[in-house]
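Regression check, flavin-adenine dinucleotide case 421:
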Amino acid sequence: MAPPQPLDLDVAVVGGGPGGLAAAKAILTARPDLRVAVFERATLRPRGAALLMQPNGISALEAMDPSLVDGLMAMDPHMGPYWLYRPDGSVVSLMEGKESPQEYIRQRGGRQCMVSWHELQSLLARSLPPGVLHQEVQFDRFQEAADGSSITMHFKGGRPPMTTRLLIGADGSQSGVRQQLFGDGPPIYAGAVSWRAVMPRPDWWPKEPGSYCIFGSPPTMLGTNPLHDGSIAWQAFAAWPEARIDEVGGRSVTYVQDPLAKKEQGEARRKRALEVFGDWCPQVRSLIEGVDPLALTEHAQLHRLPEDCKVWGRGPVTLLGDSAHLATPMLAQGTNQAMEDAVELGRAIAEHGATPEALRAYEAVRQPQAEVVQRKSVELFLAFKSAKPGTPVPQQHVELENLGVWKRVFAPLPRPGSTAA
Ligand SMILES: Cc1cc2nc3c(=O)[nH]c(=O)nc-3n(C[C@H](O)[C@H](O)[C@H](O)COP(=O)(O)OP(=O)(O)OC[C@H]3O[C@@H](n4cnc5c(N)ncnc54)[C@H](O)[C@@H]3O)c2cc1C
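Current build output:
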């Protein structure tokens, strides 16, 4: 009998979003000897979205490599007062000092940082050894060896197949790896749409540059926050009829979109946003009317039910991040949860090696934790979308504190040669 062919990789990660890159980082921190590769279909480039990194996600990053947190916090825009405005631009309230969410977090020993999705992705990508991240490589499907000892990965575009011991599907809300594992179809439409963009800070900005401004109330709101480089990010939400879901990309839209190829599409997105916000105050209109249409993203809000996300993997394959536990954005936890996934995956591989046992150990720790957040985010979104105008903005920080999510603090990943290993 011919001797078995050596495998190309120990761990292959599909998807170079925050989850996939962090997974590679965590695995290589704990086991630098493993051959790990990340396959990303796009190139790393700015996209119109910002993320709130919260205490649990920051702690997970620190466990992988404290210099990641230094890099992240160097981008901290030092958020200041929270201004709440009515749609006509009049002030409802101002939360500052002890009342502000960031002070609430600080008092509990936590940190947070608003960062653009692209800058977080770049920070993680830069932390990987050269040659780990492969851009513009689109995964197509996998094939498991009959004895479960390896996976053959097939790619689009005629790239030759590769073999790997483990496969991690970190390919986001429309995960192809998930579909091949479970075939459970596209995510559920949550009944609302969001528009997001990053753009220069407008003239009307409050005099404190770190101000966070929220206009309106559930279910029709626009929130805008500063970024460290003087730009701002905004995101707007509105209930949107299911009958019109195809106009906003349908159920197959990805949460994090590439800049648009066509200006007309951007203009159509702007028009739909103005359908909702066109008679709001000049500040809100200036954001929508002033944005470069190519920087404007639009997506139906999608999620999966916690009941449908009890199982994440099989044999040498598992899921991580949005592919495993897609939630609504109500708790701003998607990326933070993906960081937690990554660190636990790294720990499991440190303990069990690149084996299916490591994947089952990772899933056993993370699935119940992620489920709590997913369940709450769905519950909050249902209340959000059916709220009467004037309903107070959900206190995301209080909800997360009550769920105990911020209490999870991660010990440094064991490193070969360290006493913790
Ligand atoms: C309006 C809104 C606001 C949000 N705000 C926050 C927030 O403040 N804080 C927070 O923590 N989270 C937030 N989120 C959630 C966050 O964006 C996601 O949870 C996060 O991006 C998930 O990371 P991921 O790596 O799992 O997936 P993704 O970021 O979706 O990355 C998946 C990657 O896989 C790649 N890919 C897909 N298919 C293939 C393939 N076949 N081959 C190769 N590559 C492939 C994609 O190109 C992509 O780069 C928000 C989401 C929305 C919609």
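Comparison notes: The chain has two domains: 9-76+112-186+305-407, 188-303. Residues 14-20, 39-42, 51-52, 138-139, 170-173, 176, 194, 196, 235, 255-256, 321-322, 329, 332-336, 338 surround flavin-adenine dinucleotide (CB under 6 Å). No diff flagged against the previous build.
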